[in-house]
TrEMBL record:
Protein source organism: Geosporobacter ferrireducens
The protein's name: glutamate formimidoyltransferase
GO cellular component: cytoplasm
GO annotation, biological process: L-histidine catabolic process to glutamate and formamide; L-histidine catabolic process to glutamate and formate
EC number annotated for this UniProt entry: 2.1.2.5
Residue ranges of every copy of the Formiminotransferase N-terminal subdomain domain listed in the record: 5-182
Keywords, comma-separated and alphabetical: Cytoplasm, Folate-binding, Histidine metabolism, Transferase
Gene Ontology molecular function terms on file: folic acid binding; glutamate formimidoyltransferase activity
């Protein structure tokens, strides 16, 4: 990878079960100059795959647009079922500035991508987070409210005209949100109960919109195959809302219902600094920082 500008993109697609379809969706990120596929992680319960790529802005943009086209061909949202909220075959596409790149440039890249997707595939696009055209579109949950099934009616509302494309959903690929943001952690905490109400109650207590942690968005999800539920969340600024702090709060709240935390998982990639912070807390390390991580010194 060159010393120039580097952007990260983490597109989320509404397919987590059919491996052939997933490979087709991911294929545009392979063997491309200026693009590196870091990770892709599918979840059968959520019926969703999260892809993480980095690279040169123009190359990443072109690969993302190509992949969105593939997803529109292989995913039929009229038949999609899963535990995760969704409104399109390619549900959400965030760009994250990583090196020698400003947020302003990431926002411009998001706009270019949204315009291309609408023009090439007739998929309406909303801009969200830092790229949002209106304050009420910053929060992805507000944009996605109604999900795929409710989008035809939602797009009739003058307040919810798409930023790019016609106010009419793609019949099988739905609607896509494209935005720009800082790095976040997609984090799920598992509970040993099938009672979704308990997970929802805990999520309500920890998310910012209900008075919880400032940089936490959370909801409850059922995992019927395992007989458990999860508190699923996005930590939008891990330097101010730490993973360990959220984990311990969920464990404390679960005790109110006689429920135990039985594990947690990170979806996609996580910044090393977030894990160092968590390790320092649980091990009681004094004065510990990234400077004391062996791999960090090797990269200098």
């Amino acid at each position: 990878m060159s010393k120039g500008k580097i952007v990260q993109c983490v597109p989320n697609y509404s397919e987590g079960r059919d491996l052939d379809k997933i490979e087709k969706i991911v294929s545009p990120f392979r063997g491309k100059e200026g693009v590196k596929l870091l990770n892709y992680e599918a979840d059968k319960d959520y019926n969703r795959v999260v892809v993480t790529v980095i690279g040169e802005p123009e190359a990443v943009k072109n690969a993302v647009v190509e992949s969105i086209g593939v997803a529109a061909e292989v995913i039929d949202m009229t038949k999609h079922e899963g535990q995760h909220s969704r409104m399109g075959a390619t549900d959400v596409v965030p760009f994250i500035p990583i090196r020698n790149m400003s947020m302003t440039e990431a926002i411009e890249l998001a706009k270019e991508t949204g315009k291309a997707v609408a023009e090439k595939y007739n998929i309406p696009v909303f801009l969200y987070e830092k790229a949002a055209s209106k304050p009420e579109r910053e929060n992805l949950a507000d944009v996605r409210k109604g999900q795929f099934e409710g989008m035809p009616e939602k797009l009739k509302n003058p307040e919810w005209q798409p930023d790019f494309g016609k106010a009419q959903i793609h019949p099988t690929a739905g609607v896509t949100a494209v935005g720009a943001r800082m790095p976040l952690i997609a984090y799920n905490i598992s509970l040993d109960t099938p009672n979704i109400q308990i997970a929802n109650n805990i999520a309500k207590n920890i998310r910012f919109s209900n008075g919880g942690f400032r940089y936490c968005k959370a909801g409850g999800v059922e995992i019927p195959d395992k007989g458990i539920t999860q508190v699923t969340m996005n930590l939008t600024d891990y330097t101010k809302t730490a993973m360990y702090r959220v984990f311990e709060t969920v464990r404390m709240e679960a005790k109110r219902y006689g429920v135990n935390v039985i594990g947690s998982e990170v979806v996609g990639l996580v910044p090393m600094e977030a894990l160092v912070d968590t390790a320092a807390y649980y091990l009681g390390l004094e004065g510990f920082s990234m400077d004391k991580v062996l791999e960090t010194s090797l990269m200098e």
